[in-house]
């Protein structure tokens, strides 16, 4: 290894996981450099891409020495064309009351359903927060971790154990149709199960997606959804401030070309401008595909590893439409407090499934599923931030040719709930998955750097043999959303990666 | 109803009209989806031709892959365990290649025409492996098995035969060198390579030229004890030469269903082909380095010299406690050495040092 290791660690990519990882390493007296390709750190946690965030766990915040940001809890509204919206806040009594106006049976069942799901998400969550075992290691502690998960599941009791086993591969639509009669409620929960993923409500495995989402949102269906006071970028700003106080060096506009490999070990990075920086450990916050094929280079990979990374699914399916408004639109049967809520357009399971179908063939659905968020800063005009589910990564006609049409179809859907929306719009901007890929250097433009599905979770995330934040190259680690437990703006990947790196020093 | 199976039957090689005419036994063998002759007359006669005259064998079914492109040299060096960075144009190298666990997939020969054009020859089909490995390299891989007809011309008089056939100055060709000839208007590539351990050449040409080549070689070798040579005789010569055969002495890692059947290069006597100090990475390097450093090699392949005349096909080898310590993978009574010999795969430390009283039971 080279002697001129100026830094203990270099982190490639200043997204939130990179910032968390950098801070934890710096607090252990490591000299850390962050190389960020864009002009500013933060990655996809900003006011443009992010609508809502889960709370940061106490484990993450305490390892950072506390997080001083204020979380504002948000209500979720399932919009109905008839104005009979469902409002849920994650409180047992309030939600029960809200649902019982439509169906008292659903209200009771919702509580049972929520309790069951919450129990399962807690069981899964206990496994999610720590570094996953590595099945190819044959080490005792790794088997013990697996055993512990098995034990936790078994300790749920025989009835729950059977139920857990039944549900783990199930599709969410079946489960919802078994429990509820109200299609709007079904649609809302189904929407939250498939959001950000490449699955429809009737795709096997869509249920585990919901459990995963609940595990990072306080084990609650609608109770753990937050915005950060002053804008979601406050989260990033706070982490950057911490970096400064911990003496982490940050280089922006510093795009890394590749890792420098000496003697089959990563010893540094080479920037696009030719500058070389050396360090003892290199940590990639970039998605797995780019980490392996661009940073590590395919000439340094075994064939089997190439195969696995090539098969790693990371095509994004979510677009973002941002509408600049001159005034707030009026939504049917919604008051001012409602406008501060998370509004979901997913009237039924079938509606979502119909939206999903064309995306399988890289085609657009002109009646997409939406999550609407109104952002109003005091000094600026309000904005409508709309997350559009099932926008294909690439369309068969080319995004450029269909963008206008697509935007209009989305606005048409919104006008069903807010008839005066057209008068309010001043400017429209659509960010497609391939825009995200280009702007944020995420191959596939996937929120989570890779699908959250059972074959790409836990010790299989991102690929078997590369879990536990290590890559196939000694000295190169991963800390991004592509690693366990995955995306969702939790910072857990960054925290666990920091531990793995520290253990390796 | 009778189904017409002709279209799904084994393919015939471009030499088939000649090999089938020469065969008196009608014994055929399926090699990579082609029909090849197992035995023309008697295996012993064919073997004798290889050792005392010239033997001709149809090699066409051997997997042949052309690797072309700007990164061809870099890619080949990355694919195999041997350090090929210094390989010269118009030479051939014996190679093995491994998977990520450092287990051998196959052995073969690589032909270098220039730094942008190579040809790989091996026993099993590996097109997918090559293609997947080539991801990220500027190379294209094409399977040329069907478009190149190949013959092995082996034995002490093979050089004279080929010179009569029209290959001038062939005696100047050193082992593992190759040269392109133009004979009767066709391009013929001759390499000094083989699988018998004797003087020998391999000949590569257009399938259209196959029958004429066969006929002309037959004429050229008429007074040089030339004889066609089947798979059985090849098996005899290669065991005598100590050459290993994929899926006989070890299982190809890509085809093996049980991980315990896979072998690392160190377990089949191929450690000399693994250059861990090669400056660039190669497939399996990490695993092989670990195996070497931690001395976790479990088995070894050894040559055995056995009492008695009976070939020890498939025999089991025991230690003094009657525990099974290995198996014979290939065996014969060697006519040239007048000895009963075999290749055997043993559990280490057996085979590395003699512990005493290991014995073999011939059960066949």
Mean pLDDT level of chain B:
91
Strand content of chain A: 15-25%
What would CATH call the architecture of the domain at 9-62 and 147-241 in chain B? 2-Layer Sandwich
Q: Report the uncertain regions of chain B.
A: none
CATH class of the largest domain in chain A: Alpha Beta
* Largest interface, Cβ cutoff 8 Å: A-B, 16 and 17 residues
Strand arrangement across the biggest beta sheet of chain B: 11-12-13-10-4-14
Along the chain, the helix and strand elements of chain B come as: EHEEHEEHEEEHEEHEEEHEHHEEEEE
Q: What is the CATH C level class of the domain at 9-62 and 147-241 in chain B, in words? A: Alpha Beta
Strand count, sense and closure of the main sheet of chain B?
Answer: 6 strands, mixed
Give the strand content of chain B: 25-35%
Rounded Rg of chain A: 23 Å
The major β-sheet of chain A equals: 7 strands, mixed
Q: Based on the structure, what is the oligomeric state of the protein chains?
A: heterodimer
What is the terminal separation of chain A in angstroms? Answer: 14 Å
Q: What is the count of structural domains of chain A?
A: 3
Radius of gyration of chain B: 21 Å
User: Mean pLDDT of chain A, as a whole number?
Assistant: 89
Shape of chain B: globular
